[in-house]
Protein backbone atom coordinates (compact mmCIF):
# COMPACT_ATOMS: atom_id res chain seq x y z
CA UNK A 1 0.00 0.00 0.00
CA UNK A 2 1.36 3.44 -0.92
CA UNK A 3 1.57 6.28 1.61
CA UNK A 4 -1.46 8.59 1.66
CA UNK A 5 0.43 11.62 0.29
CA UNK A 6 1.82 9.68 -2.66
CA UNK A 7 -1.38 7.94 -3.74
CA UNK A 8 -1.51 7.94 -7.51
CA UNK A 9 -4.75 8.92 -9.22
CA UNK A 10 -6.07 7.21 -12.36
CA UNK A 11 -9.10 8.14 -14.45
CA UNK A 12 -11.04 5.19 -15.92
CA UNK A 13 -13.12 5.92 -19.02
CA UNK A 14 -15.71 3.27 -19.96
CA UNK A 15 -16.61 2.83 -23.63
CA UNK A 16 -18.51 -0.46 -23.35
CA UNK A 17 -17.40 -3.78 -24.87
CA UNK A 18 -17.50 -7.34 -23.54
CA UNK A 19 -15.85 -6.25 -20.28
CA UNK A 20 -19.07 -4.29 -19.55
CA UNK A 21 -21.59 -6.77 -20.97
CA UNK A 22 -24.33 -8.72 -19.21
CA UNK A 23 -27.52 -10.37 -20.32
CA UNK A 24 -30.59 -8.13 -20.64
CA UNK A 25 -32.88 -11.13 -21.05
CA UNK A 26 -33.35 -10.67 -24.79
CA UNK A 27 -30.75 -13.33 -25.67
CA UNK A 28 -27.04 -12.67 -25.67
CA UNK A 29 -25.01 -10.14 -23.72
CA UNK A 30 -25.02 -6.39 -24.39
CA UNK A 31 -23.02 -3.44 -22.99
CA UNK A 32 -24.76 -2.61 -19.72
CA UNK A 33 -22.29 -2.03 -16.86
CA UNK A 34 -21.03 1.39 -15.88
CA UNK A 35 -17.35 2.17 -15.35
CA UNK A 36 -18.08 2.42 -11.60
CA UNK A 37 -19.57 -1.10 -11.63
CA UNK A 38 -16.51 -2.45 -13.48
CA UNK A 39 -14.14 -0.88 -10.96
CA UNK A 40 -16.22 -2.13 -8.01
CA UNK A 41 -15.96 -5.72 -9.32
CA UNK A 42 -12.14 -5.86 -9.31
CA UNK A 43 -10.74 -7.80 -6.34
CA UNK A 44 -7.57 -6.22 -4.95
CA UNK A 45 -8.02 -2.82 -6.58
CA UNK A 46 -8.57 -1.01 -3.27
CA UNK A 47 -5.34 -2.55 -1.91
CA UNK A 48 -3.24 -1.05 -4.74
CA UNK A 49 -3.43 2.38 -3.12
CA UNK A 50 -4.50 3.96 -6.40
CA UNK A 51 -7.36 6.48 -6.29
CA UNK A 52 -9.79 5.91 -9.15
CA UNK A 53 -12.12 8.36 -10.88
CA UNK A 54 -14.63 6.93 -13.32
CA UNK A 55 -16.39 8.31 -16.35
CA UNK A 56 -18.92 6.66 -18.67
CA UNK A 57 -17.88 8.02 -22.03
CA UNK A 58 -19.76 5.63 -24.35
CA UNK A 59 -21.57 2.31 -23.81
CA UNK A 60 -21.15 0.54 -27.16
CA UNK A 61 -19.82 -2.70 -28.62
CA UNK A 62 -16.31 -2.17 -30.01
CA UNK A 63 -17.62 -2.59 -33.55
CA UNK A 64 -19.96 0.41 -33.20
CA UNK A 65 -17.36 2.89 -31.99
CA UNK A 66 -16.67 5.58 -34.57
CA UNK A 67 -13.55 7.57 -35.36
CA UNK A 68 -15.19 10.69 -33.89
CA UNK A 69 -15.90 8.84 -30.60
CA UNK A 70 -12.14 8.35 -30.36
CA UNK A 71 -11.13 11.87 -31.34
CA UNK A 72 -13.66 13.18 -28.77
CA UNK A 73 -11.99 10.92 -26.21
CA UNK A 74 -8.51 12.10 -27.27
CA UNK A 75 -9.60 15.72 -26.63
CA UNK A 76 -11.08 14.76 -23.25
CA UNK A 77 -7.96 12.82 -22.18
CA UNK A 78 -5.69 15.64 -23.34
CA UNK A 79 -7.63 18.11 -21.16
CA UNK A 80 -7.71 15.78 -18.19
CA UNK A 81 -3.96 15.14 -18.31
CA UNK A 82 -3.16 18.83 -18.87
CA UNK A 83 -5.16 19.68 -15.73
CA UNK A 84 -2.63 17.65 -13.73
CA UNK A 85 -5.36 15.98 -11.67
CA UNK A 86 -4.52 12.40 -12.70
CA UNK A 87 -1.29 10.42 -13.09
CA UNK A 88 -2.63 8.15 -15.80
CA UNK A 89 -5.70 7.08 -17.74
CA UNK A 90 -7.34 3.71 -18.36
CA UNK A 91 -9.87 3.15 -21.15
CA UNK A 92 -12.11 0.05 -21.07
CA UNK A 93 -13.65 -0.97 -24.39
CA UNK A 94 -14.52 -3.78 -26.77
CA UNK A 95 -11.52 -5.78 -27.87
CA UNK A 96 -12.80 -5.95 -31.46
CA UNK A 97 -11.40 -2.52 -32.28
CA UNK A 98 -8.65 -1.97 -29.68
CA UNK A 99 -5.87 -2.37 -32.28
CA UNK A 100 -7.31 0.62 -34.18
CA UNK A 101 -8.61 2.80 -31.33
CA UNK A 102 -5.35 2.51 -29.38
CA UNK A 103 -3.31 3.66 -32.39
CA UNK A 104 -5.65 6.58 -33.08
CA UNK A 105 -5.37 7.72 -29.45
CA UNK A 106 -1.60 7.19 -29.64
CA UNK A 107 -1.28 9.51 -32.64
CA UNK A 108 -2.89 12.32 -30.63
CA UNK A 109 -1.26 11.57 -27.26
CA UNK A 110 1.64 13.91 -26.59
CA UNK A 111 1.59 14.08 -22.78
CA UNK A 112 3.99 11.92 -20.72
CA UNK A 113 1.32 10.25 -18.56
CA UNK A 114 0.37 6.66 -19.45
CA UNK A 115 -2.88 5.98 -21.31
CA UNK A 116 -3.76 2.28 -21.11
CA UNK A 117 -6.52 0.47 -23.03
CA UNK A 118 -7.98 -2.80 -21.83
CA UNK A 119 -11.03 -5.01 -22.27
CA UNK A 120 -12.09 -8.62 -21.88
CA UNK A 121 -12.60 -11.67 -24.03
CA UNK A 122 -14.95 -13.41 -21.56
CA UNK A 123 -17.94 -11.40 -20.39
CA UNK A 124 -18.71 -11.09 -16.66
CA UNK A 125 -21.36 -13.87 -16.77
CA UNK A 126 -18.79 -16.51 -17.81
CA UNK A 127 -16.50 -18.69 -15.70
CA UNK A 128 -13.00 -17.26 -15.79
CA UNK A 129 -14.08 -13.79 -16.90
CA UNK A 130 -10.86 -11.90 -17.62
CA UNK A 131 -12.16 -8.34 -17.26
CA UNK A 132 -11.30 -7.80 -13.57
CA UNK A 133 -7.70 -9.05 -13.92
CA UNK A 134 -7.19 -6.99 -17.06
CA UNK A 135 -8.60 -3.84 -15.44
CA UNK A 136 -6.43 -4.34 -12.37
CA UNK A 137 -3.27 -4.74 -14.50
CA UNK A 138 -4.25 -1.72 -16.61
CA UNK A 139 -4.68 0.47 -13.52
CA UNK A 140 -1.40 -0.74 -12.06
CA UNK A 141 0.33 0.13 -15.34
CA UNK A 142 -1.36 3.53 -15.73
CA UNK A 143 -0.38 4.48 -12.17
CA UNK A 144 3.28 3.48 -12.53
CA UNK A 145 6.06 5.97 -13.41
CA UNK A 146 7.85 3.39 -15.61
CA UNK A 147 4.92 3.49 -18.06
CA UNK A 148 5.34 7.23 -18.73
CA UNK A 149 6.57 8.49 -22.11
CA UNK A 150 5.64 5.25 -23.90
CA UNK A 151 2.54 6.58 -25.66
CA UNK A 152 -0.69 4.63 -25.53
CA UNK A 153 -0.45 1.05 -24.22
CA UNK A 154 -2.71 -1.98 -24.46
CA UNK A 155 -2.71 -4.26 -21.41
CA UNK A 156 -4.47 -7.62 -21.41
CA UNK A 157 -3.46 -11.02 -20.00
CA UNK A 158 -0.67 -9.27 -18.03
CA UNK A 159 1.08 -8.24 -21.26
CA UNK A 160 1.93 -4.63 -22.10
CA UNK A 161 1.79 -3.78 -25.81
CA UNK A 162 2.61 -0.63 -27.78
CA UNK A 163 -0.44 0.80 -29.59
CA UNK A 164 1.52 1.04 -32.84
CA UNK A 165 2.26 -2.69 -32.92
CA UNK A 166 -0.55 -4.55 -31.17
CA UNK A 167 -2.97 -6.79 -33.08
CA UNK A 168 -5.99 -8.89 -32.17
CA UNK A 169 -4.92 -12.30 -33.46
CA UNK A 170 -7.54 -14.77 -32.20
CA UNK A 171 -11.34 -14.58 -32.17
CA UNK A 172 -11.84 -16.00 -28.66
CA UNK A 173 -8.55 -16.58 -26.82
CA UNK A 174 -7.82 -14.47 -23.72
CA UNK A 175 -4.27 -14.11 -25.04
CA UNK A 176 -5.48 -12.76 -28.38
CA UNK A 177 -3.37 -9.59 -28.27
CA UNK A 178 0.09 -9.94 -29.80
CA UNK A 179 2.73 -7.63 -31.18
CA UNK A 180 4.03 -9.66 -34.14
CA UNK A 181 6.63 -7.01 -34.98
CA UNK A 182 8.91 -6.75 -31.97
CA UNK A 183 6.87 -8.44 -29.25
CA UNK A 184 5.25 -6.92 -26.16
CA UNK A 185 6.95 -4.00 -24.39
CA UNK A 186 6.73 -5.88 -21.11
CA UNK A 187 4.61 -7.71 -18.58
CA UNK A 188 2.73 -6.95 -15.38
CA UNK A 189 4.45 -9.07 -12.73
CA UNK A 190 3.03 -9.27 -9.19
CA UNK A 191 1.18 -6.03 -9.85
CA UNK A 192 4.14 -4.07 -11.23
CA UNK A 193 4.78 -3.24 -14.90
CA UNK A 194 8.17 -4.61 -15.99
CA UNK A 195 9.33 -3.04 -19.25
CA UNK A 196 11.76 -4.99 -21.44
CA UNK A 197 11.49 -2.93 -24.66
CA UNK A 198 10.64 0.61 -25.65
CA UNK A 199 8.89 1.91 -28.79
CA UNK A 200 11.58 3.03 -31.26
CA UNK A 201 9.77 5.98 -32.78
CA UNK A 202 6.31 7.51 -32.42
CA UNK A 203 4.41 9.76 -34.76
CA UNK A 204 2.22 12.33 -33.05
CA UNK A 205 -0.19 14.84 -34.57
CA UNK A 206 -1.62 18.10 -33.29
CA UNK A 207 -5.17 17.64 -32.00
CA UNK A 208 -5.91 21.32 -32.52
CA UNK A 209 -5.57 20.80 -36.29
CA UNK A 210 -8.45 18.28 -36.38
CA UNK A 211 -10.91 19.13 -39.13
CA UNK A 212 -13.83 17.30 -40.67
CA UNK A 213 -13.39 13.54 -40.98
CA UNK A 214 -12.12 12.26 -44.31
CA UNK A 215 -13.29 8.98 -45.85
CA UNK A 216 -10.50 6.43 -46.12
CA UNK A 217 -11.22 3.07 -47.72
CA UNK A 218 -9.52 -0.21 -46.86
CA UNK A 219 -9.50 -2.59 -49.83
CA UNK A 220 -8.19 -6.12 -49.37
CA UNK A 221 -6.85 -7.78 -52.52
CA UNK A 222 -7.80 -11.44 -53.03
CA UNK A 223 -6.98 -14.31 -55.37
CA UNK A 224 -8.32 -13.68 -58.87
CA UNK A 225 -9.40 -10.13 -57.90
CA UNK A 226 -10.98 -8.29 -60.84
CA UNK A 227 -10.78 -4.86 -59.19
CA UNK A 228 -14.55 -4.51 -58.71
CA UNK A 229 -14.10 -2.61 -55.42
CA UNK A 230 -11.77 -0.07 -57.07
CA UNK A 231 -14.41 0.99 -59.63
CA UNK A 232 -15.28 4.65 -59.04
CA UNK A 233 -13.49 4.66 -55.68
CA UNK A 234 -11.64 7.95 -56.30
CA UNK A 235 -14.97 9.80 -56.45
CA UNK A 236 -16.04 8.47 -53.08
CA UNK A 237 -12.95 8.66 -50.85
CA UNK A 238 -10.19 11.03 -49.73
CA UNK A 239 -7.63 8.25 -49.42
CA UNK A 240 -7.26 4.48 -49.56
CA UNK A 241 -5.23 1.65 -48.08
CA UNK A 242 -4.64 -1.46 -50.18
CA UNK A 243 -4.11 -4.64 -48.15
CA UNK A 244 -1.97 -6.40 -50.73
CA UNK A 245 -0.44 -9.86 -50.96
CA UNK A 246 2.88 -10.59 -49.24
CA UNK A 247 5.38 -7.72 -49.42
CA UNK A 248 2.97 -5.50 -51.41
CA UNK A 249 1.76 -7.32 -54.54
CA UNK A 250 -1.50 -7.16 -56.53
CA UNK A 251 -2.75 -8.91 -59.70
CA UNK A 252 -1.39 -7.05 -62.74
CA UNK A 253 -4.89 -6.19 -64.00
CA UNK A 254 -5.38 -3.93 -60.95
CA UNK A 255 -2.35 -1.75 -61.74
CA UNK A 256 -4.04 0.85 -64.03
CA UNK A 257 -6.89 1.43 -61.55
CA UNK A 258 -4.46 1.78 -58.65
CA UNK A 259 -2.23 4.18 -60.57
CA UNK A 260 -5.26 6.29 -61.45
CA UNK A 261 -6.44 6.24 -57.84
CA UNK A 262 -2.96 7.21 -56.58
CA UNK A 263 -2.89 10.18 -58.94
CA UNK A 264 -6.08 11.48 -57.33
CA UNK A 265 -5.87 10.60 -53.63
CA UNK A 266 -3.13 9.22 -51.34
CA UNK A 267 -3.03 5.42 -51.62
CA UNK A 268 -1.08 3.38 -49.08
CA UNK A 269 0.26 -0.09 -49.88
CA UNK A 270 0.15 -2.44 -46.88
CA UNK A 271 0.61 -6.17 -46.47
CA UNK A 272 -2.39 -8.33 -45.62
CA UNK A 273 -0.09 -10.95 -43.99
CA UNK A 274 -0.26 -9.55 -40.45
CA UNK A 275 3.46 -9.26 -39.72
CA UNK A 276 6.70 -8.05 -41.23
CA UNK A 277 7.37 -5.05 -43.46
CA UNK A 278 6.38 -4.43 -47.07
CA UNK A 279 9.34 -4.16 -49.43
CA UNK A 280 10.42 -1.44 -51.88
CA UNK A 281 13.19 -2.68 -54.19
CA UNK A 282 13.01 -6.47 -54.55
CA UNK A 283 10.36 -7.52 -57.12
CA UNK A 284 9.99 -6.06 -60.58
CA UNK A 285 6.92 -7.68 -62.21
CA UNK A 286 3.74 -5.75 -63.05
CA UNK A 287 1.78 -5.43 -59.80
CA UNK A 288 4.91 -5.85 -57.68
CA UNK A 289 5.76 -3.51 -54.80
CA UNK A 290 8.38 -1.73 -56.91
CA UNK A 291 5.93 -1.26 -59.77
CA UNK A 292 3.22 0.15 -57.47
CA UNK A 293 5.53 2.45 -55.49
CA UNK A 294 6.86 3.79 -58.80
CA UNK A 295 3.27 4.65 -59.74
CA UNK A 296 2.81 6.77 -56.61
CA UNK A 297 1.52 4.36 -53.96
CA UNK A 298 2.94 4.90 -50.47
CA UNK A 299 4.60 2.03 -48.59
CA UNK A 300 3.09 1.20 -45.16
CA UNK A 301 6.19 -0.73 -44.05
CA UNK A 302 5.60 -2.34 -40.67
CA UNK A 303 2.14 -0.79 -40.28
CA UNK A 304 -0.59 -3.35 -40.89
CA UNK A 305 -3.57 -2.30 -43.07
CA UNK A 306 -5.75 -1.32 -40.09
CA UNK A 307 -3.10 0.89 -38.52
CA UNK A 308 -2.13 2.30 -41.91
CA UNK A 309 -5.77 3.32 -42.44
CA UNK A 310 -5.88 4.98 -39.00
CA UNK A 311 -2.67 6.92 -39.74
CA UNK A 312 -3.87 8.00 -43.19
CA UNK A 313 -7.23 9.06 -41.74
CA UNK A 314 -5.56 11.05 -38.94
CA UNK A 315 -3.12 12.75 -41.35
CA UNK A 316 -5.92 13.80 -43.70
CA UNK A 317 -8.13 14.85 -40.77
CA UNK A 318 -5.36 17.19 -39.56
CA UNK A 319 -4.89 18.83 -42.95
CA UNK A 320 -1.83 17.02 -44.29
CA UNK A 321 -1.45 16.80 -48.03
CA UNK A 322 0.19 14.23 -50.24
CA UNK A 323 3.88 15.01 -49.65
CA UNK A 324 3.48 15.24 -45.87
CA UNK A 325 1.50 11.97 -45.90
CA UNK A 326 4.36 10.26 -47.77
CA UNK A 327 6.99 11.67 -45.43
CA UNK A 328 5.08 10.61 -42.35
CA UNK A 329 4.53 7.08 -43.63
CA UNK A 330 8.24 6.91 -44.45
CA UNK A 331 9.17 7.65 -40.85
CA UNK A 332 6.28 5.79 -39.19
CA UNK A 333 6.94 2.69 -41.29
CA UNK A 334 10.74 2.74 -41.41
CA UNK A 335 10.91 3.29 -45.18
CA UNK A 336 12.98 5.97 -46.91
CA UNK A 337 11.24 9.13 -48.22
CA UNK A 338 9.56 8.98 -51.64
CA UNK A 339 11.16 10.14 -54.89
CA UNK A 340 10.35 13.87 -55.12
CA UNK A 341 10.64 13.72 -58.93
CA UNK A 342 7.51 11.52 -59.17
CA UNK A 343 4.66 13.51 -60.76
CA UNK A 344 2.24 12.73 -57.93
CA UNK A 345 4.72 14.24 -55.42
CA UNK A 346 4.95 17.47 -57.41
CA UNK A 347 1.17 17.84 -57.47
CA UNK A 348 0.74 18.20 -53.74
CA UNK A 349 2.60 20.23 -51.13
CA UNK A 350 2.65 19.82 -47.32
CA UNK A 351 0.72 22.36 -45.27
CA UNK A 352 1.79 21.50 -41.77
CA UNK A 353 4.44 19.62 -39.91
CA UNK A 354 4.35 16.27 -38.18
CA UNK A 355 6.19 15.82 -34.91
CA UNK A 356 8.10 12.62 -34.54
N1 LIG B 1 -15.78 -9.42 -28.42
C1 LIG B 1 -15.74 -8.02 -28.21
C2 LIG B 1 -15.04 -7.65 -26.92
O1 LIG B 1 -14.18 -8.38 -26.59
C3 LIG B 1 -17.00 -7.32 -28.38
C4 LIG B 1 -16.72 -5.88 -28.52
O2 LIG B 1 -15.67 -5.51 -29.06
O3 LIG B 1 -17.53 -5.06 -28.07
O4 LIG B 1 -15.30 -6.71 -26.25
Description:
- The protein has 356 residues and is of the alpha/beta class.
- It has two domains: 191 residues, L-asparaginase, N-terminal domain (Rossmann fold), CATH 3.40.50; 149 residues, Rossmann fold (3-Layer(aba) Sandwich).
- 26% of the residues lie in helices and 20% in strands.
- It is built from ten helices and 16 strands.
- It has an eight-stranded mixed β-sheet.
- Strand 9 and strand 10 form a beta hairpin.
- The longest helix is centred in the first third of the chain and has 16 residues.
- It is globular.
- The two termini are 38 Å apart.
- Bound molecules: aspartic acid.
- Aspartic acid binds next to loops.
Please provide a brief summary of the model.
This protein is an alpha/beta fold and 356 residues long. The chain contains ten helices and 16 strands. Strand 13 (216-220), helix 5 and strand 14 form a beta-alpha-beta unit.
Q: What's the number of helices?
A: 10
The SSE order reads: EEEHEHEHEHEEEEEEEHEHEHEHHH
Q: Helicity level, as a percent range? A: 25-40%
Q: Which regions have little confidence, pLDDT < 50, spanning 5+ residues?
A: 342-356
Quote the average pLDDT.
93
Q: Largest sheet, if any? A: 8 strands, mixed
What is the CATH homology-level superfamily of the largest domain? L-asparaginase, N-terminal domain
Radius of gyration: 21 Å
Beta-strand content estimate: 15-25%
CATH architecture of the largest domain: 3-Layer(aba) Sandwich
Which molecules other than protein and nucleic acid are bound? aspartic acid
CATH class of the largest domain: Alpha Beta
Molecular shape: globular
Tell me the span between the first and last alpha carbons.
38 Å
